[in-house]
Amino acid sequence: MTKEPDPQGGALRRFRDPAYRPLAGDLAGIRREIDRIDDAVVRLLAERAMYVKDAARFKHDAFQVSAPARQAQVFAHVRALAARHNPAFNGGFEGLPEVVEAAYRALVAGYIASEQQYFGQTEPISPSTQDEVPE
Ligand SMILES: O=C(O)C(=O)C[C@]1(C(=O)O)C=C[C@@H](O)C=C1
Q: What is the pTM of this model?
């Protein structure tokens, strides 16, 4: 079959697990929920990006921008979060920690590339002239 699925069509299959509970009546309903969630995810990624940009002010050089030990910490953290947030209903989502870690590896690579660019837009300051820290 080389045709895209019909968003308005009825279900074509069912899970063999008798306890499985469907989340929407059709594929259009599923996609509406996915679009809603993507909006929230991307809004948070944009908020995260601004903190990554600001992090450049606290680094001496390109190695510090890359901060590999911190990267490893972030990947382990999001993996653990994915395991914790994996829903208990409908059997959860198998391999969610791996999916989330892979996404974060791609995301952080992009964030680092931009942070390196932003680092190039900074200049060193002496401690006495440092920016004021917000409360
Ligand atoms: O924590 C930092 O130092 C950051 O710059 C943030 C961040 C991240 O996206 O989480 C980005 C670049 C570094 O590789 C490590 C982590």
A: 0.92
CB distance 27 to ligand 1 below 6 Å:
no
Contact (CB, 8 A) for 6 and 30 = no
Asked if ipTM goes beyond 0.95, one says yes
Q: For residue 132, report the distance from its CA to the centre of ligand 1, in Å.
A: 22
Closest CA to 56 of 4, 131, 106: 131
Ligand 1 atom nearest residue 51's Cα: 6
Decide which of 1.20.59.10, 3.40.50.800, 3.40.50.880, 3.40.50.970 is the CATH code for 27-122.
1.20.59.10
